[in-house]
């Protein structure tokens, strides 16, 4: 059993100690060893039972008191553990294990009930032992040490509380700064997004304005051509004579702006291109369908291939053709 105990195989060691007890139930050492195995295995009630049996068999065997006090301490019976250690002092008043156990119990008692345990409080625990002056002096010294430890622990607790308070204050300040920085970053991000949206809108407005300007220029050009056509028609009507009616289609009398620059014929469906010139609709579309993206007149690149019907010029051409008694081709 001892070999297994040294190897920390407490379960099997317990079984061997049990066999030894069955062979010799009067050996307190075996009960002490089995009690310690029960303590390591967490079986405190059985450990307490073996420790009490050990003391019963030999009241002078110190390990029995130590085992019992350890079990009581682990079961949080601190006053009982303190009394057991005091009983053990009668076996060996200078034993450090017992003295340290007394200190530990006194400290836990102070911590649990918030008060000091003095000699008067110990009389109920000591019973007949309280008459031992040497033991009383030892206990008095222990309790004084426990009181000093308690004060030290209290001061340390106050320092820890203050330290924690300062730490929380610093943490709150830091978190507040982080929150303010986050809010500032979010605000800045929102402003940047709005600025980008305004910039995009500005570009859109500029593009729309440019298109409107181009459209206005095309309309102005269309109006100019229409005015020219009307003035020419008035001039032709004033200078026309009966003898000239047979030469309606004479090329020299056809206004040049009635003629498509591509087909060189009078236009039936005039359209204004991006270069500002007017072309016969079918011919300018055919020009674009071949892949050309330049002006037939200037040979410069066109910004787009959109066509605008020149309604005014078409009306003027139709009126002119009617005056010449020629049906539109």
From TrEMBL:
MF GO annotations: Hsp90 protein binding; ubiquitin-protein transferase activity
Pathway note: Protein modification; protein ubiquitination
Domain U-box, chain residue ranges per copy: 253-327
Coiled-coil region list: 132-236
Biological process, per Gene Ontology: protein ubiquitination
UniProt-listed Pfam families: TPR_11, U-box
InterPro entries hit by this protein: TPR-like_helical_dom_sf, TPR_rpt, Ubox_domain, Znf_RING/FYVE/PHD
SMART domains noted in UniProt: TPR, Ubox
Entries under CDD domains matching the protein: RING-Ubox_WDSUB1-like
Transferase is among the record's keywords: yes
Keyword set, alphabetical order: Coiled coil, Repeat, TPR repeat, Transferase
Keyword Ubl conjugation part of the UniProt annotation: no
Protein name (record): U-box domain-containing protein
Protein's organism: Aegilops tauschii subsp. strangulata (Goatgrass)
């Amino acid at each position: 059993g001892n070999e297994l105990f040294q190897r920390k195989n407490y379960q099997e060691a317990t079984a061997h100690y049990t066999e030894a007890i069955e062979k010799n139930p009067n050996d307190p050492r075996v009960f002490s060893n089995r009690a310690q195995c029960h303590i390591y295995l967490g079986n405190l009630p059985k450990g307490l039972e073996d420790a009490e049996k050990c003391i019963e068999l030999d009241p002078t065997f110190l390990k029995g008191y130590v085992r019992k006090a350890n079990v009581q301490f682990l079961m949080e019976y601190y006053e009982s553990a303190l009394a057991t250690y005091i009983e053990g002092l009668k076996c060996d008043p200078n034993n450090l294990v017992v003295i340290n156990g007394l200190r530990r119990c006194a400290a836990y008692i102070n911590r649990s009930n918030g008060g000091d345990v003095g000699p008067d409080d110990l009389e109920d625990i000591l019973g007949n032992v309280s008459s031992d002056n040497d033991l009383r002096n030892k206990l008095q010294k222990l309790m004084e040490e426990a009181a000093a430890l308690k004060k030290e622990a209290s001061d340390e607790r106050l320092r820890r509380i203050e330290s924690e308070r300062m730490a929380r204050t610093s943490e709150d300040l830091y978190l507040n700064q982080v929150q303010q920085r986050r809010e500032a970053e979010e605000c800045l991000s929102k402003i940047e997004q709005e600025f980008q949206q305004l910039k995009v809108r500005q570009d859109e407005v500029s593009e729309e304005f440019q298109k409107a300007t181009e459209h206005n220029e095309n309309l102005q050009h269309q109006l100019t051509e229409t005015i020219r056509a009307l003035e020419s028609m008035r001039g032709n009507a004033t200078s026309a004579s009966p003898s000239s009616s047979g030469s309606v289609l004479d090329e020299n009398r056809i206004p040049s702006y009635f003629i498509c620059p591509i087909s060189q014929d009078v236009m039936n469906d005039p359209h204004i291109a991006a270069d500002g010139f007017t072309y016969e609709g079918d011919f300018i579309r055919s020009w674009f369908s071949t892949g050309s993206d330049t002006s037939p007149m200037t040979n410069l690149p066109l910004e787009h291939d959109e066509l605008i019907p020149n309604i005014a010029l078409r009306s003027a051409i139709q009126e002119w053709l009617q005056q010449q008694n020629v049906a539109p081709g």
